[in-house]
Design brief:
three-stranded antiparallel β-sheet; mainly beta; about 0% helix
Length: about 60
């Protein structure tokens, strides 16, 4: 099993005092603001063809 990437800071308060939580996979606890959050991978975005990308400018 490979290790997952760890967050660098809390998404709520910005502090870096994070610990892995034992509640669920990908769950983290912030010791500064006492919040828990969970990270999960949703998937890859599909690439749009160049013709479909928005072009800056008025038509």
């Amino acid at each position: 099993m490979s290790e997952r990437a760890a967050p660098f800071y809390c998404p709520y308060c910005g502090d870096e005092d994070l610990r892995p939580s034992e509640e669920a996979s990908g769950a983290w606890e912030c010791r500064a603001c006492s919040r828990a959050f969970q990270l999960s991978f949703l998937g890859l975005l599909a690439r749009r063809p160049a013709a479909e990308t928005p072009q800056g400018g008025a038509s």
